[in-house]
Inverse folding.
């Protein structure tokens, strides 16, 4: 098992790509939303039997974010990037083509588990807040005052 950050994966891809993994799980996978990024290129080089992407925001800026997510976990489902742009992005964003949007929804629906905030909130423990006041040492207080004055 290897647990790493996206930055380390990008930097150490030559070592990591020499292994084959059973599962490759991308947490906060929206960080790999740019298909032209070095991180995306590195992630594509990792070989695994199964791929899983976990994100709370599969689409942050454009439908390309969705294509990238799906390409990482289910290569080919939405076609190549030029195909996806031509058949989905342009018709949906420029022409408001409802039938294309419905087709896209139907394609990706079996591969997405979407839980609404209301459903997730039921599984979470109640929020607990604790305020703890502690005195600063004279050195900390002096440093704090100096930084505060500098910011002003």
């Amino acid at each position: 098992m290897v647990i790493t950050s996206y930055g380390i994966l990008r930097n150490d891809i030559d070592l990591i790509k020499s292994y084959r993994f059973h599962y490759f799980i991308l947490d906060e996978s929206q960080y790999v939303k740019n298909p032209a990024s070095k991180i995306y290129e590195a992630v594509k080089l990792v070989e695994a039997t199964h791929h899983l992407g976990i994100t709370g925001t599969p689409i942050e800026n454009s439908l390309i974010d969705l294509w990238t997510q799906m390409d990482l976990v289910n290569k080919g489902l939405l076609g190549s990037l030029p195909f996806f742009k031509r058949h989905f992005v342009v018709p949906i964003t420029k022409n408001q083509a409802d039938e294309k949007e419905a087709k896209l929804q139907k394609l990706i629906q079996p591969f997405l588990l979407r839980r609404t905030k209301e459903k997730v909130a039921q599984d979470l423990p109640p929020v607990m807040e604790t305020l703890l006041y502690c005195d600063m040492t004279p050195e900390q207080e002096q440093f704090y005052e100096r930084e505060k004055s500098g910011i002003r």
Observations:
- The CA atoms of residues 12 and 81 lie 26 Å apart.
- Helices lie at 6-11, 13-16, 38-45, 63-73, 81-95, 98-108, 117-123, 138-151.
